[in-house]
Every structure is written in structure tokens, then in C-alpha cells.
Amino acid sequence: MPEVTRPGAADRMSGDAVAVDGRAPVGGLLRTRNFALLWIGQSTSAVGSAITSVALPLVAISTLQAGPATVALLTAATWLPWLVIGLPVGVWVDRWPRRRTLLIADIVSAAVLVVIPIAAWTNVLTVAMLLVAALLAGTAGVFANVAFNAFLPHLVRADEMMEGNARLQTSASVALVVGPGLGGLLAQVAGAVSGVLIDAGTFLVSAACLLALRSAPEPRPAPGDRPGMLRQIADGIGFIMRGRLLQAMLVVAAVTNFAMLGITALRIVFLVRTEGAAPGTAGLVIGVGSLGAILGAALASLASRRFGSARTYLVANVAAAPFVLLLPLGGHGWRLALFAAGSFVALAGATMSNVMTMTYRGTFVPARLLGRVTAASRIFVFGSIPLGAATAGLLASALGIRSAMWALAVLYVIAPCPCSPPRPAHCATSRADHPLSLPTSREAPARRHVLARQTSTMLT
């Protein structure tokens, strides 16, 4: 299968106009039509998904009187498809047009979610229906996530990846602030299912933005050049396994997701049922804590340029993790501020880490492998989420909600242990030589050839 090369400054595949010297227009990527449309669609959908992250558990709690184990199972069902179909989806995304895959995933998600309010209003909604809807929406999300990460480098140059990822992470972080508060407010005013209905509408907005893109056709490999699915899956996994840095990133991300999403699966039950907070108050607390994600996204590019991507990644993971211990310390009254503060710092660090990781992967992985490498990475990273949510439910049932959150918070704190500062003897002599420094579009192909040698000395 021939490798698909990324566009240079002069032959950008997105079709957007660029300056004569190859730089993006003044104002950055948001001044380019295709990225602006992609950003609007993804940002709108992110707000809807953040609303549902509060609304769906509230539907289970308020409408169906579900317990903590059932609420945690809802989170597990959303992420379970990563474990089941994550690897083959990576192969399919590398074979299929990625924009079309994104479009179909948006339409399927909208159709699945709109069933929930209709069923609730006709008094036929059951826990089983909620679980099936979460499973189907999660399946569509697997295709959307892998396709999006493989499609973004088609729209932006390699030296624009940091800006693109930072802007997308910023809007996703804003959604984490706005969405939970809206979800809680809607639940109090119009019922929890109204938030799910709004989420369905945001997927249609995302689909409309995808249809409006004017990108060049995506280069596809000739059918005769395709090896079997197992061989293609092995290619994606093999690329990851050739570098200790990529492996360490996977371990840290998988364990932190296991712990944090376990806490997330319990947070609504913890705040509303254990601490007696109103749904609107719970959404406000979660939203305030999510402001940290905006700060992390805003600082990611600046910190990377000032201190280097590797140091930023290490500090974001190691220094922010202990603040998660404030979450189980949260309680009634002023102690809700502890929950918000812990979430603020933890999400700031997690978002900075995400920007570094996504930019690193999007810059260095060859385009022909990007879907498979993304899927292979995400099956470990996201595949740990249903396990974490299910574990959270079991721990909450056996030990109580607060004790379960303590156990998961401690695990989150020790998760960055696979990462440690690089040995002085092996430190790069300049930022340009560092394996996590970000290249220009001309440097990216050459940098891939030395990636395996460099990453082996990055971590102890």
C-alpha cells in the first residue's frame, strides 16, 4: 500500500487559500473556511454531548429511579464498543472516505438519541432502552472518533496541527463548562430528556457542517494493495510498539481514563443523591470544575513553545494528578468548592496532555496508518473506560459511593508513574532534536524516520 503524503504549504489538500509564503491567513485556522466549518460542527456537537453527560444519568435517576450501579453501567455501555470493534474500525476508516464516515456517524447518533425523549414522553422508556441507546451511540462514536483524528491532517498542514488541536480542545473544554450546567438547568425546567433531544439536534448541525466542506478528494489506496484485516491491524499496533514513548503514553492515558471515568460515572449520584445537591447545582459544580479544561487548552501551545512538549506533557500529568483527591473530599455546602477545585486542576492537566498527545500522533504517524494507529491507541485508552465505569459501580455497591471515589482517585494519582523526567545523559541538546518537539510541514516526513531511535531514550 503506497504511503499517502501530507500536503506541503503550496499544495494544501483542504482547498483553503493560503498566503504566498505558505502561512495560514491572519487570524489562524479559524479564518480558513474548511477548518472553521469543522470547528463549528465539532464544537456544537461537543456541547450537546456534554449536556447528555449530565442529562442521561439524570434520566436514569429521576425518571427510572436507577441506582449507582445502573448509572455506572450506562457509562460503561457508551464506551464498551471500543473494546469490541475498536481495532477493525481503524482498518475500515483507513479504507473508507473519512468525511463520509463522519457524516454517517452523526446521522446515526442523532437518530438513536431522539428515540429516548420520544420513549419517555410516551411512557415506554426502560433501563434496557437507555442501555441499548448508549451502546449504539457509543458505536457511532467509535467510528466518528477514529475518522475525525484521521481526517484532521487532511485539512491542515503538519505545522498547523498544534493550533488545530488546541482550538478543538478549547471548544471541547468550553463545552464541558457550558454543557453540564445546561443539562442540569434543563432537567429542572423541562425534564432531563430535553437535554438528550438537544444533543440529537447538535449532531445534525455537525452533519450539515461536514456537508458544507469543500476539501479535495481524499487519496485512497488501490484495492489491490490492501493486505488482510489482521495484517493491517498488526501494522497499526506494530507502529505503536516500536517506541517506548508511545507505549508509556498509552499506559498513562489508559489508567487515568479508567480512574477518572469511574469517578465521572459516580459524580452525578454522589452530588445529587449522597450530598443532596439539586440537579442545577450539580451541573454548575461540574461546569465550574470544567473551566480548568479551557485553561489547559489555552496554555498548551504556549507551554509547549516555552518549555518544550515533553516537559509540558510530564508536568501536566504528574503535577495535576494529586488534585483529584479533592473530589471525594467534596460534600454539602462549601465543600462543593473542593469538588470543583479538584476537577479544575485535574482537567487543566488532562487537556494539556491531550493536546500534546494528539499533536504528536497526528504529526508523526504516516497518513496511511493514521486510522489504524488511532484505533489501536484508543482501544487501550477508551477501552479502559467501560472497565473503570463498571468497577466504579461495583465498588460503590460494595463500599459506598465516597469510598469508591477515594479508591479511584488514589489510582489516578499513581497513574503517571510510567513517565519520569528524561535522563540527563540522553536529553536532547536542542528543542528541535527532542522527539516530542513539533516539526514544520517540511520536517515531518524526515522526522518519522528517526522517531523510533529518538523515543527509545525519552523515558526511563
Protein topology:
Elements: H1 33-63, H2 68-95, H3 98-121, H4 127-155, H5 161-190, H6 192-212, H7 229-241, H8 244-274, H9 279-289, H10 291-307, H11 309-318, H12 336-364, H13 370-381, H14 384-399, H15 401-414, H16 444-449, H17 451-455
Helix pairs in contact: 1-5, 1-6, 2-4, 2-7, 2-8, 2-13, 2-14, 3-4, 3-6, 4-13, 5-6, 5-9, 5-10, 5-12, 7-13, 8-14, 8-15, 9-12, 10-11, 10-12, 11-12, 14-15
Mean pLDDT comes to 78
Shape: globular
What is the succession of H and E elements? HHHHHHHHHHHHHHHHH
* Structural class by helix and strand composition: mainly alpha
Total helical segments: 17
Q: Strand fraction band? A: under 5%
The number of E-state strands comes to 0
Measure the end-to-end span.
35 Å
Largest sheet: none
Helix content: over 70%
Radius of gyration: 21 Å
Which regions are unreliable across 5 or more consecutive residues at pLDDT < 50?
1-22, 421-460
Mind explaining what this structure looks like?
With 460 residues, the protein is mostly helical. Helices cover 71% and strands 0% of the residues. The chain has helices spanning 33-63, 68-95, 98-121, 127-155, 161-190, 192-212, 229-241, 244-274, 279-289, 291-307, 309-318, 336-364, 370-381, 384-399, 401-414, 444-449, 451-455. Helix 5 (161-190) packs antiparallel against helix 9 (279-289) and helix 7 (229-241) packs across helix 13 (370-381). It starts with 32 loop residues before the first helix and ends in a 5-residue tail after the last helix.
Keywords:
disordered C terminus; globular
